[in-house]
UniProtKB/TrEMBL annotation:
Coiled coil: none annotated. Pfam families: NAD_binding_11 (PF14833), NAD_binding_2 (PF03446). This is 3-hydroxyisobutyrate dehydrogenase. Residues 2-160 form the 6-phosphogluconate dehydrogenase NADP-binding domain. PROSITE patterns: 3_HYDROXYISOBUT_DH (PS00895). The active site is at K170. GO terms for biological process: organic acid catabolic process. One of its GO terms (molecular function) is oxidoreductase activity. It comes from Rhizobium multihospitium.
Amino acid sequence: MKVGFIGLGQMGSAMAVNLVRAGHEVTVYNRSRDKAEALAGEGAKVAGTVAEACDGEAVFTMLAHDDALSAVVHGDGGVLASLGKGAVHISASTISVAMSERLTKDHAAKGQRFVAAPVFGRPEAATAAKLFVAAAGAPDAIQTVTPLFEAIGQRTFVLGEEPKSANLVKLSGNFLIASVIESLGEAMALVEKGGVDRHAYLDLLTSTLFNAPVYKTYGGLIADRKFKPAGFTAPLGQKDIRLALAAGEALNVPLPLASLPRDRFLTLLAHGGEELDWSAVGALAAKDAGLVE
């Protein structure tokens, strides 16, 4: 397929490369052109504008937040103005439910199609084309872009015909991950303060009751206290919890547990954690317990 890709951070760059390697004709755009030019050696075509990346059957956006996405979509020469009729905008970003609803409406008014397809997986999974894709949208649009999902991930979950469903699921998933990070940090601080080696404790946990990737990945980062370089930064984690709380408020669903990671992220950011991985939240309990400064 002829496809554009807008937003070349760690995740976006890896996804775009895998699309190229799967045989798709990929045009890439990034606000910082050097990130796009870095993919030229992989066979991607470098676009000078957003519009140039929209001259195909589909275009991905992988951007940090609602404002960045809206600027690319709604701005002069943006995706809405440039994408052809019947073409598909695939938003792989973690965005608000409200933004997903807006994009669905705006693209329909232009005769374009919109698919929400946020992904689960860290940069190493993106590099290995092992992401999990949570997709929602009109069945014909999903069918059109399924080969693209197969190029970037190991499995696609279709969650309905309303794109916002996929965004809601993604926010709920990130809320769960943040809750795991906090609980792991607290439990590790407890046993370490009592004299138990935290790495041995993690080995026990992940070999018995909690033999799951999320515990292994984030437990390892917390046990090693290795939060740089960030695979997913703390400000992005804080943003996702804020959006989950907003979704709960809109649906009249109380999320009392989500208020805890929200406050923990704010604590981390208040102490200069902007460049740390979001798993650094798991180290706050050790600091509170006097184990680290």
